[in-house]
Design brief:
CATH class of the largest domain: Alpha Beta
Strand content: 35-45%
Number of helices: 3
Strand order of the largest sheet: 2-3-4-5-1-6-10-9-8-7
Number of strands: 10
Number of domains: 2
Structural class: alpha+beta
CATH architecture of the largest domain: 2-Layer Sandwich
Length: about 190
C-alpha cells in the first residue's frame, strides 16, 4: 500500500454576499496578520497561524495551508469568528470547492527507472538537467487526476488533485494505488 500524506489543501468557499474587506485592512492580532494592497491585488490576505485566506469582495474566500481534511471546516468557522469581530457576518450557507490538493509519499518500490518512464510514457516529462524526477500527468477519471513527480527512490510529490471533500482520502488512495499497479510496478528495477 502506498504511503502518503497531504501537505496542503487549497479550498474555495463561495458565500453569496459582498464582503467589505476595507474594514479589515488595518487589523491584526496575536493569531493573525493582514495584508491588503488593492492597487496591486483585489484580495485581502489573512495569515492565520493555522492557514492563510484570501478574502475577496465578491464573497469568495480561498483558503490554503490546510494539512488535514477535517481542518477545512474548522478554518472556515475560525474565519467566521474573526470577521464577526469586525462586524462582517458571513451567511450560514456557502458552496465549498476543493481547488488543489498537494500530497507527498513513497511507493512500495525503492528503485524506479524514471529515465525509461520518461521515454516510454506519452504523458511523462523527464529532463534530469532541470529536475531530478519524472513528471507524469495521470488521470483515472475526469474527476480524479494529478501531476506526479516521481523520484528514482520511489518517493513522489503530487499536485493538482481535486475531488469531493467527503472523498479526499478515497480519491488519493485510488489514484496512487492504481498508479503504482499500472506504472510504478512496470518500471521498478
Amino acid at each position: 500500500m502506498v504511503e502518503w500524506q497531504i501537505t496542503n489543501i487549497q479550498a474555495t468557499a463561495y458565500f453569496d454576499t459582498i464582503i467589505k474587506i476595507d474594514r479589515l485592512a488595518d487589523i491584526s492580532s496575536k493569531d493573525f496578520t493582514v495584508s491588503y494592497n488593492p492597487d496591486n491585488y483585489p484580495g485581502l490576505i489573512l495569515y492565520h497561524k493555522k492557514f492563510s485566506a484570501i478574502i475577496f469582495r465578491t464573497g469568495s474566500i480561498k483558503i490554503t495551508g490546510i494539512k488535514k481534511t477535517e481542518d477545512i471546516f474548522s478554518s472556515i468557522e475560525e474565519l467566521r469568528k474573526i470577521l464577526k469581530n469586525y462586524n462582517i457576518n458571513l451567511p450560514e450557507k456557502y458552496t465549498l470547492r476543493i481547488a488543489n490538493i498537494h500530497i507527498s509519499g513513497k511507493f512500495d518500490y525503492d528503485n524506479i527507472d524514471i529515465e525509461k518512464i520518461g521515454l516510454e510514457l506519452e504523458d511523462a516529462f523527464y529532463n534530469p538537467e532541470r529536475f531530478p524526477a519524472v513528471t507524469i500527468y495521470y488521470k483515472i477519471s475526469p474527476d480524479i487526476k494529478a501531476a506526479l513527480n516521481i523520484f528514482k527512490n520511489g518517493s513522489f510529490v503530487g499536485v493538482g488533485l481535486k475531488c469531493n471533500i467527503n472523498e479526499i482520502t478515497q480519491c488519493i488512495d485510488k489514484l496512487l494505488n492504481e498508479f503504482q499497479e499500472r506504472i510504478i510496478k512496470k518500471f521498478a528495477k
